[in-house]
Amino acid sequence: LSVITIIHIIRYRKKYGTKLIAILLAATVLTSGIIYSTLFVFSVTFFIRYEINILFWKLSIIAGVISLIITSFVYSFFHEYKKIKPFPFLYYTFLLGTLIGALLAPDSIELILSIPPPSSFSVIDPALINFRFNFITGAIIILFQSLITSYYFYIASLINIRSKKKEERLPLILNTIIFTIPILMNIYYIILQQTVFRELYITLIWITTFTVNIMLIKKPEIFFVLPNRIYSINIYHKSGILLYSLNFDKKSDNKDESPIWGNILIGLNHILSEFIGKKDKIDVIQTKKTDIVVKYEMDYGYALVVITNKKNSIIEDLMLNFSIEFKRKYK
Fold first, then answer.
1. 327, 297 in Cβ contact below 8 A?
2. Which residue, 185, 94, 191, is CA-closest to 133?
3. Which residues contact 246 (CB under 8 A, 6 or more apart)?
4. Tens digit of pLDDT for each residue in 309-329?
5. DSSP string over 93-145
6. What's phi and psi for 292, nearest 5 deg?
């Protein structure tokens, strides 16, 4: 399913808003659903040599941490596209470097077998093989997973407060809750060193991965709906005549600015005809809480005007697709 999801994301990357988001999502599925899971399974079900199994286990830990960091970038884009604050990502990078340094120590992880060592390349019962972390390695992993889970809930709570539509915010909230449960199981495993928590962890991870992959395929619009708000779409002829208008501002989060939108558009009516056909054009008018974004279609003599919370490449791509569809329908 992970391979199918990656192919789907690459093939329909425009549905996810921008190429950057599609790349991050594909990278998340690759690292967590394929690389991490493969290394994890090999390290606990196949006995090759002590050193090789420990190496696979360490690599699986690094792959899992990288996957969590990439996912945190996606979460940050939910809040505000391409706005990445130095904290906590610099801190995550520092913890990743510290973790890699700790894993290089020969006593960072110990492999314990409940049976005499079998021959190389033997299939083994996962319950008979265990990995014990030294204090420093275990503490770094627990600290990292605790912080990054808190960050997921922080972003989800911000989206829950900002978004007025239940169908927009519910998938992210549910995904965050489901995603947290296996992380807790892994923390219990590190602390208690009981293989039952490890088995619960990987089982829940696979269930979570399956659920997330289905969401990525079925609801790609969540990745450009959540970080963006479009309040109004207007199309003006170069003469200033309003050709098309669609207003979403009935329950806007920015009602205090709504009265000035009409005045701005009236002024825009008069200046659009002066700018269409010229090299220097107004492409965005910024207010306190909104951006009025303009896309000119010189060949057709009109301008698409969108009032949104913030101009970004997602909005520009949506405007391009809307303009193409408008020209196709009314040419």
1. yes
2. 191
3. 232, 233, 234
4. 777 677 777 788 778 777 777
5. HHHHHHHHHHHTSTTSEEEEESS----TTEE--GGGEEEEE-HHHHHHHHHHH
6. -105, 110
226 token code pair: 């959540």
Compute how many other C-beta atoms are within 10 angstroms of the C-beta atom of residue 7: 11
Q: Which of these, 148, 172, 179, lies nearest to 158 by C-alpha position?
A: 172
Report pLDDT digits (tens) over 43-86.
988 888 888 999 999 999 999 899 888 888 877 776 665 556 66
- Contact by Cβ (8 Å): 154, 128: no
Q: How far apart are CA 267 and CA 316, in angstroms?
A: 22
Inter-residue contact 235 to 301 (CB < 8 Å): no
Sequence length of the chain is: 331
Say what the pTM is.
0.71
Residue with tokens 């010229």: 278
Rounded Cα distance, 321 and 311, in Å: 16
CA distance 247 to 261: 11
Query: Closest Cα to residue 28, out of 66, 79, 84?
Result: 66
Q: From CA 300, how far away is CA 278, in angstroms rounded?
A: 14
* Phi/psi-derived region of residue 277, left when phi > 0, alpha when psi is between -120 and 50, beta in every other case: left
Q: Is the peptide bond before 88 cis (omega within 30 degrees of 0)?
A: yes
CB 144: neighbour CB atoms within 10 A? Answer: 21
CA distance 79 to 298: 34
Tokens of 133: 């972390």
Looking at residue 82, what DSSP letter applies? T
Residues 6+ apart with CB under 8 A from 166: none
Pure H helices in the chain = 2-11, 19-29, 37-45, 50-79, 86-103, 135-162, 166-192, 195-218, 222-225, 258-275, 313-330
